[in-house]
Write a structure and sequence with these properties.
Layout lengths: L3 E2 L7 H27 L2 H29 L6 E3 L1 H23 L6 H22 L1 E3 L1 E5 L1 H24 L5 H22 L1 E5 L9 H45 L9 H18 L2 E9 L2 H8 L1 H17 L5 E7 L2 E8 L2 H15 L3 E3 L2 E3 L3 E8 L6 H17 L5 E3 L2 H17 L8 E10 L5 E12 L3 E3 L1 H11 L2 H17 L6 E5 L10 H12 L6 E5 L1 H6 L1 H12 L4 E7 L5 H7 L4 E4 L1 H7 L3 H17 L2 E4 L5 H10 L3 E2 L8 E2 H14 L8 H13 L1
Parallel strand pairs: 11-12, 14-16, 16-17, 17-18, 18-19, 19-20, 20-21
Antiparallel strand pairs: 1-5, 2-3, 4-5, 6-8, 6-11, 7-8, 9-10, 13-14, 13-21, 13-22, 14-15
Bound molecules: ligand C2E and magnesium ion (2 copies).
One magnesium ion binds next to loops.
Length: about 700
Amino acid sequence: MRVISCILTEHDLRLVLLSAFVIVSGGWLAFGLFRRAEEKHGAQRHGWTFLAAVAAGASVWCTHFIAMLAFDVRAPITFEPLLTIGSLLIAIVGCGVGFDVALRDRKPSSPAAGGAILGLSVAAMHYTGMMGYRIDGLVEWSAGYIAASIAMAMVLSAVALHQAVRRSWAFSHYAAIALFVLAVVSLHFTGMAALSVTPFITDTALANPEILVTMSIAVACVGLIIASTGFAAYIIDTKASEDMAERLHHMAYNDALTGLPNRAGFAVHLGHALDLAKAEGSRLAVVSIDLDRFKEINDLRGLEAGDAALRLIGQRLSELLREGEFVARAGGDEFATVKRFTERSDLLDFVARLEGVLFTPINIGDFQTVTGASLGVAVYPEDGDTQERLINNSELALYRAIDDVTRATCFYEAQMDEASRARHTLGQDLRHAIELNQLELYYQVQTSVSTGEICGYEALLRWRHPVHGMVSPAEFIPIAEETGSIIPIGEWVLRTACREAASWSVPHKVAVNLSPVQFVNADLARLVHEVLLQTDLSPSRLELEITESTIIADKARTLHILRQIKSLGVTIAIDDFGTGYSSLSTLREFPFDKIKLDRSFMNEVEHNQQAKAVVRAVLSLGKTLEIKVLAEGVETAHQLAILHTEGCDEAQGYFLGKPQPIAQILMALANVGNSNVAQTVPTPISASRRKRQRHAG
Ligand code: C2E
Ligand code: MG
Ligand code: MG
C-alpha cells in the first residue's frame, strides 16, 4: 500500500487558476455587497446582507469544490450529495450571520466578531464538504493541521471584516478582500495538508482530468451566476441612486415653472464662467433683470396668467442665448444673465437683444401686454472680481434703472451706486440703533432775546455709530424716514426727552422735532398723551416742532392730529419757517404757538437788506397773529443785536449755546438751582459789553 499525500499535481493547474478566479471575483463581489449593506438600514440592510452572504458562501463553496476536484488522490472518489449541498448552505448561512454580526451594535469589536464567525463558517463548510468527499482508501486526519486551519480562517476573516468596516486607510476595502481570499485559501491548503489518503486501489485512469475540468467549469459558472444576481442588484441600485441624485440635483438647481436654472444654478454657472474669464483674460457681465409690470398681470389677470407670462418670457430669454451667454430665473419676476465677451459692442448687442425680448408684447389668452423691464449691468473686472460683488453691483445698477423712468438699462457706476450702498447699510444699522443704545439726545438752549433768560431747550438727536462715529441727524433722519425706522426712533426721542426734562431742577420747556412720517400714524396724539402720563411731564412744558412739509403732505389729517395734541396743553412750533411754500396760509389755518425762523436768514441778515426785510416781515406777522418768533442759527453778537432791535422774542444758535449732552445741561441747571437765580445766556447788551471788555483788555 502506498500513502499519497494530497498534493496538487501539475495537470490540474488550470483548475487551481479557475478556483482562484472564482474566489477573487466572489470576494470582490461579496465585499461590494457588504459595503452597500453597511450604508443601508432596516429591511434594505437585511436584503443586501443576504445578497452578500449568497455571493460569499457560493464563491467559497465553488472554490472549495473546484479545488477538491483539482486534488488527485489517485483513488476513486464520490461526493455524498446531502453533505455536499449541506456544506453550501452552511457557507451561505454562516457568512450571513457573520456579516450581520459585523454590522450590528456598531461596537468596535463587532466587525472582528462577525469576521471570526465568517471564518468559522468557511471552515465548517470545508470540513462538512470533506465529510461528503468519499475516497476509496484509508483516510487519516492530523488534528494539529485542522486546528491551525480553523484558527487561520477565523483570524484572517476577523481582520478582513474589521478592515472592511473600520476603513482605517485608503485601501482598506481591497485589503479586506485580499485578507478574505487569503483566509479561504489558507484554510483550504492547511486543511488539505491535514489529510492523508492510502488508496485501496491505484488506478490513474479513474481520475479523468478533462471530466474534472468540465465539471469544475460547470460548478464555477453556476456559482458565479448565483453570485451575479447580487451584482445585478448592485448595478440596478447604483443606477437608481444616480438617477435619483440627478433628479434631486435638477430640482435643486432649476426653477420648476420656467425650467430655467434658478438662483443656485446661476451661482454655480457664474462661478465657472468667472474662473474661465479670469483664465482666458476675457470680460464678463452680470445683467440683473426685473420685470416692470408683472405685478399688474398677477393682480388683474390672476396668478395663472402671471405664471404663463413668466414661462413665455423665460422661454424667449433662453431662445436668444448665444455661445457664452446664460440666463436664470432669480426668483419672483427677476431674471439674471451672464455674458462672456471681449468687445464692449458684444455686451451692448446682448443688452439690446434682452431689451428686445422683454419689450416684445406677449399674448396670454385673449389679452396682450408688454411687461417691460429694468436691467442693471455690472462688468468683470472693472465693477468687481467676485461673484458676490458682481451680483451686488448689478443689483445696485438695477435699482437705479427701476427708479429711472427714462432708461431701461443702467450700467454700474461706482460713485452713484456706492452712495446708495452706503445709505442702504446705514439704513440697516439704524434699525438696531435703539436696542444697541447708540442714540442719545443733545439739548440746545433757547433764550429770550430781550432778557437773555432761558426759555427752553430743543432736543436734537445724535447717533453714535460704532464705525462712523457721530452721524448727523441731517444725514440719517431722511434714511430713517425712507425705511420707516423713524416711527420707533421718533417715539424713543419723545419718551427720552420728556423723561429727562421731567428730572430737571428748573422747569424749562423741552422742544421735540416730529417727522412728517410720524403723522401717518393716526395714534400720534394718543402716544403724546401716554408719554406725558408715563413720564409725569406737565404738558405745558412740551413743545413739538413740525415743518411745513408735514402740513403739505396731508393738510386736513395733519391739522386734525395737531389740534388733538394741542388740546392736551402741548404747544406747537413751526420749524424752519420761510423755506417752505405755503407759509402764510398755513399760519392762518392753524394756531401755532411759535414760529422758528429758518437759520438761512440769520446767515445773511447782517449784510443783505432783503434778508433783513424778510426777518422784519416775519416778526411783524408774528406780532399781528400773536405768535412768538424764535430766530434759529444765531452765531454772532451782531445778529443777536439786530434781533433785539427788530423786537424778536427768542433766539437759538451757537452764539447762545451749542447742542450739549444731557450731563452738561444737568450740571448747568444744578448751578442755577444752587444760586437760585434764573440762568441767563448772553443778551445783546451783555455780549457787546463783554466784547468791549475784551478789546479794552
Ligand atoms: P432743526 O430742527 O432746525 O434743528 C436745528 C439744527 O441747527 C440742529 O442741527 C442744530 O445743531 C443746528 N444749529 C443750531 N444752532 C446753529 C447755529 O448757530 N449755526 C448752525 N450752522 N447750525 C445751528 P442738527 O442737530 O444737526 O439737526 C439737524 C436737523 O435734524 C434738525 O433741524 C431737525 O430737522 C432734524 N432732527 C434733529 N433731531 C431730530 C429728531 O429727534 N427728530 C426728527 N424728526 N428730526 C430731528
Ligand atoms: Mg427743530
Ligand atoms: Mg430748524
